[in-house]
Amino acid sequence: MGGFKAIVFDGCQIYSPKDAKAENGQVTQGGAVYKGEAVIGLTEYYPLHVCNVQVSTANCDDILGNGTASYDIDKHVLTLDNFRYEPEDFIQGVALGGGLENVTIVLKGDNFIKTGYFGISMTCNTTITGTGTLTIQSNSSAMVVNGVQLTIDGQPTIMLDGDAGLSGFSEWPGYVKFISSNVKIKGGFVNFAAVEFEGCSIKEPQGIELKDLNYVLNDEVYKGEITIAPGTSGIGGTHADRRVKDVIYHSLSGCVAAAPKNGIYLKTTTYSDGTKETVKVVM
After folding, report:
1. Tell me, what DSSP letter sits at residue 54?
2. Which one of 13, 28, 202, 243 is least enclosed by Cβ atoms within 10 Å?
3. What angle do CA 203, 205, 207 make, to 5 degrees?
């Protein structure tokens, strides 16, 4: 394909051969005009944004064009490789939307995010792993877990510094599991229904505990630095904050009773750790 003043793809792309591209009015491969069969199809977009750029089939191999971020669509793996982001505007570093499933973030090299908004937000179950480092400095929450499960697994060294270092939402508290992790959290570890430590523990400060969804010290939300490191000599195990989140009454016929009066009802209580309990009550 060639001989054109320009070739522009709008909402579509060359799928095959994968390394073909349009330049100077022709389709090339390896710098030469491509004369074989080219397959052009619609570009697919995903609920994943990196530096405010939406990930698609067209840019997933090199999202920002500088080799620091890529996404494997089939394996659901986002790789950050010496990734650096310092926006002047109020923009998230990485946003993982609810339409994704079980995403893994692999850290390579030294990665850094400094923003006035969320550093990384997750609305899908996410695992962070790799051999690199990640430092986030935020005027808001450095890392947000929106009612889903975050697992920090193994070797990466992570430093979270923000108005809240690691945060869920009060309406949708997060769940987090640390596996042999090296993590420092500054500014608050808040709005989590359950926190689990495997092969690691909180080393500092001693006496900290999960209470009313937040890590507190002397009954006040702790805003200083929390250090999590391998080994079980600190505060470890599983911490769960089980409080009532919602109560719904149903009649025996299955109808919701907004204001139950005299009679027999099924009372369903939903707790902050996601569990539910149903009992028969007489009003």
Report:
1. E
2. 243
3. 105
Q: Residue 210 in contact with residue 239, Cβ under 8 Å?
A: yes
pLDDT tens profile 170-226: 788 899 999 999 999 999 999 998 899 999 999 999 999 998 889 999 999 999 999
Two tokens at 52?
């405010």
| CA of residue 79 relative to chain centroid, distance | 13
Question: Cα separation of 129 and 265, whole Å?
Answer: 47
Residues of the chain with pLDDT under 70: 1-2, 9, 13-17, 20, 39, 41, 240-245, 271-274, 283
CB–CB of 86/114 below 8 Å? Answer: yes
Helices and strands, counts by H and E, the chain = 0, 33
24/249 Cα distance (integer angstroms): 68
Which pLDDT value is given to residue 243?
57
Residues 183, 155: contact at Cβ < 8 Å? Answer: no
Q: How far apart are CA 129 and CA 262, in angstroms?
A: 55
Report which residue type is found at 79.
T
pLDDT at 33: 80
Q: 3-class SS at 67?
A: coil
- Of the candidates 182, 145, 126, 190, the one whose C-alpha atom is nearest the C-alpha of residue 164 is 190
